[in-house]
């Protein structure tokens, strides 16, 4: 049982964990669906792939799509390892989830069973959601900088709440509706999160690159992008 982190707590935890290439999207601190349903207690940190790639994605996950209002996650991670802070509060990322999958993260079991068909749990109320830029196509790689930043992001949440790596789950582990979301080995991913949690947050092994390669976009350019997308969505 955990009270969701505040925006300031989240930023501090990310920076402590060595996530340096961060973009705070304008309005992210109050971007949520709390008027539509519960948010918290939180018990899990979910990882997703976007199923598409490109510069429009930050705006889409912030605002949503025609069929699904945003935010569509809490954080969005590009293939270059840049983390966009998208929402704070209830977000449309998990939908309903299977009870056996949820029980596994809630109780931090080492076994994460294939999800039941029935989905009685409101996943958006109980789980953070990290979206990662990847088409989801067979063979589409996850660049090391993206993968290991995802490890840091999920480790930061676990560390803050005192969770083990078995509080991390994939969308594909939570529902049969998303059988390949994301197309990564979750046993390995949880092992990598668990390894980080054995060390201080500042731990930075040479094999896990995080260095930003490009300057962050200005808030003005982000505003313009979000506005353009809003028009598209409406
Ligand atoms: Zn997903």
Feature tags:
about 230 residues; Lysozyme-like; two-stranded antiparallel sheet; about 35% helix; binds zinc ion; Amidase_domain
Walk me through what this model shows.
The protein is α/β, with parallel strands linked by helices. It is built from eight helices and ten strands. It has a six-stranded mixed beta sheet, sandwiched between helices. The chain is globular and about 45 Å long. The model is unreliable at 211-215 (pLDDT under 50). The protein binds zinc ion. Residues 48, 171, 178, 181 line the site of zinc ion (ZN). Zinc ion binds at residues 48, 171, 178, 181.
Give a short summary of the structure.
The protein has helices at residues 7-16, 57-63, 99-106, 123-126, 144-161, 171-174, 186-197, 219-233; strands at 22-24, 44-49, 64-65, 68-69, 75-77, 83-85, 96-97, 121-122, 127-132, 168-170.
What is the overall number of helices?
8
Distance between the termini: 38 Å
What is the N-to-C order of secondary-structure elements (H for helix, E for strand)? HEEHEEEEEHEHEHEHHH
So what's the oligomer here?
single chain
Bound molecules: zinc ion
In what range is the share of β-strand residues? Answer: 5-15%
Average pLDDT metric? 92
| Total E-strand runs | 10
CATH architecture: 3-Layer(aba) Sandwich
Q: Provide the low-confidence segments as ranges.
A: 211-215
Q: What would the CATH topology be?
A: Lysozyme-like
Tell me, what is the CATH class? Alpha Beta
**Approximately how much helix is present in the residues?**
25-40%
Protein name: N-acetylmuramoyl-L-alanine amidase
InterPro entries: Amidase/PGRP_sf, Amidase_domain
Organism: Streptomyces paludis
GO molecular function, one term: N-acetylmuramoyl-L-alanine amidase activity
């Amino acid at each position: 049982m955990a009270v969701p982190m505040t925006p300031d707590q989240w930023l501090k935890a990310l920076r402590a964990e060595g996530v340096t290439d961060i973009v705070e999207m304008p309005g992210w601190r109050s971007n949520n669906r709390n008027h539509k349903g519960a948010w918290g207690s939180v018990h899990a940190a979910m990882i997703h792939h976007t199923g598409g790639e490109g510069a429009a994605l930050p705006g889409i996950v912030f605002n949503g799509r025609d069929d699904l209002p945003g935010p569509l996650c809490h954080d969005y991670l590009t293939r270059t390892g840049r983390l966009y802070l998208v929402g704070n509060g209830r977000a449309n990322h998990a939908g309903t989830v299977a009870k056996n999958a949820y029980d596994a993260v809630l109780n931090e079991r080492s076994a994460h069973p294939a999800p039941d068909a029935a989905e009685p749990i409101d996943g958006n109320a109980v789980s953070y959601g990290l979206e990662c830029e990847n088409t989801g196509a067979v063979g589409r790689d996850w660049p090391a900088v993206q993968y290991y930043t995802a490890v840091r992001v999920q480790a930061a949440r676990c560390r803050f709440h005192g969770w083990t790596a078995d509080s991390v789950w994939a969308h594909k582990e939570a529902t049969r509706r998303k059988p390949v979301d994301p197309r990564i080995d979750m046993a390995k991913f949880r092992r990598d999160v668990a390894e980080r949690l054995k060390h201080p947050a500042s731990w930075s092994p040479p094999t896990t690159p995080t260095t930003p390669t490009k300057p962050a976009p200005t808030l003005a350019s982000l505003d313009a992008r979000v506005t353009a997308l809003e028009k598209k969505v409406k």
